[in-house]
Amino acid sequence: MPRASWTKPAQLHLTFAFLGEQDVSVVPRVSEGLDNAARSSGPFDVRLSEVSAFPEPGRPRVLWIGLERNSGLEAIADSVRTALDSANVDYDRKPFRSHLTLGRAKDRWRRADLENLAGALESFRGRSCPVSAISLYESRLGSGGATHVEAARFPLRS
To answer: Is the peptide bond before 55 cis (omega within 30 degrees of 0)?
Structure first.
């Protein structure tokens, strides 16, 4: 396969809303909103699904594995975004796509390369993963890329 910058397992995460650079003063408002969102849902499981890429499979740049549609996941995404709107916090409003970023293409990847990756990961498809909390992460940029550090954790507890 062509080269890629692979995501370290400890850095895998699901993004409900990307906040970008924010002033530290928004953290209490965001935390309160996330805590409220976490109270609206109990723990549940998600299942891994297809391997694909952004911006599109024919021009892979970001390699990812999706999560099957799940009402619990969709409800949390809606709650998180509603909480951010209520707190007047700006965020990237791209539609929510439940996925885990596996890596970023360094060389030119073709559709066939992406299909090879999907084949290599086929045994993971359908695997169940527990969701028991949502977290607020801070991204710290460094020479090796971004490192995501958990700033706060909110257990699901409806």
So the answer is: yes
